[in-house]
Please model this.
Amino acid sequence: MMREINNICCIGAGYVGGPTMAVIAKHCENIQVNVVDIDEERINKWNDPDTSKIPIYEPGLREIIELTRGKNLHFSTDLKKHISKADMIFISVNTPTKTRGRGAGKASDLKWVEASARQISEFAKGNTIIVEKSTLPVKTAETIKEILNSQKSIDFENNFKSFEVLSNPEFLAEGTAINDLENPDRVLIGGENDNAINLLVEIYLNWVEKEKIITTNLWSSELSKLTANAFLAQRVSSINSISALCESTGADINEVSKAIGMDKRIGNLFLKAGPGFGGSCFKKDILNLVYICEHYGLKEVSNYWEQVLKINEWQQKRIIQKVLEKLFGTITGKKLAILGFSFKANTNDTRESPAIKICEELLIEGAKLNIFDPKVTYSQIKSCIDSNIIQTDNYNEFMCFSKAETIQKAVEGVDGIIAITDWEDFSKINWEELSKLVRKPCWIFDTRSIINKIEAEKNNFNIWQLGS
Ligand code: UDX
Ligand code: UDX
Model:
């Protein structure tokens, strides 16, 4: 008879672990889901009676938390307790790029995955299924297995203990996480043991159609996640490279995107030119792919993928150049408004946001920045900006930034407005009202084609739109 999964533990209450477990809890009322994290402050926020305070902003998440929290969804820092009770444990801790040692700048730092595996190995009881949720280098499952099996095979209640490792990469995108989890294009489960695979399949079958659940071997599953992100990032770099050509030739990137996207073989998604991709995954995963290719001696392949990152960086440099050029070659002492700081709309996540690099460069050039973002806080912005820039002696009245509470406040007395994030509100800005607040002549730099150009021009703004 097949075992039942009654208790799930997820290590890591982040952007992936939190929403994923909330959706599992919603659809599997008979399963107790415990999300654990070493970060006490984060767990406290998840437990805040006021659900507007949960640490992650995702449309639809709050409602699910209200429905499930305290019933079959729980947030805790007690790793030992919840690991020992779990039939299935998801590892959803972060895997940043290594900053030192071998593979620095490219390889993933697996120290937290390793730490999780060690804790599981120590505290788990009986037969436990381990699910890799974090995006990991191919063959990490092997490492996890080795660590799990390195402890004695008897648990602290003198029962035999054993482990099965599955790979179940998460394809959710931030800002649409709940919808992506509720209606996934596919669910991918890699593993070697059919029983363990089937137990995880059963969980997803509570809300996902059978045809959408793919099972593969472990390595295919791990590599598919890296490849999916690399392909998506590559599309963004491809369209961004063409945006530069459009500017030189008089073509319009939005018209080109539309024309090529109507070809079914190409498809219309991920063809929006912009300031380059951000987010916690694309850069990290491509670096990781590059590292793996180098490791296996596939230099041509690693060079190929590295180019996707180079174009991404170049796109941001191009935007900074454009700002300088239009503002008479210098921005020293000039005020600029930054619209949007998160890496894309509908999220408060700023990891790898193109806004970081752009703001840093503008600060180095001596500008004073008023940053507006509907969801990102001042302290979060501050933690992103290189502290060397803030601490320099030149960081004075001019070379500094502040957080503006409204768009109106952000644009007071500015010479330029740079739209970086595609927040929908930016498309509805009342340019007549803003034209009275800025210093003329004022330039708008629209890196996302989100600004109403006709309205802006009608109100005497100069406007540069990326890719046209
Ligand atoms: C992370 C990875 O970045 C991504 O590659 C993977 O696909 C999923 O996990 P995310 O959820 O966005 O994505 O990360 P983050 O929001 O940083 O959350 C990770 C959480 O793990 C943090 O809250 C951190 O405190 C916690 N953690 C980390 C532990 O609980 N234990 C550890 O040992 C390390
Ligand atoms: C991505 C993957 O989509 C998801 O499957 C994976 O699990 C994690 O990484 P995410 O980083 O949340 O998700 O956001 P995504 O919507 O993919 O956007 C990534 C970046 O590309 C953003 O900065 C976005 O603004 C940019 N982008 C996306 C474009 O510039 N143009 C586009 O057409 C699409």
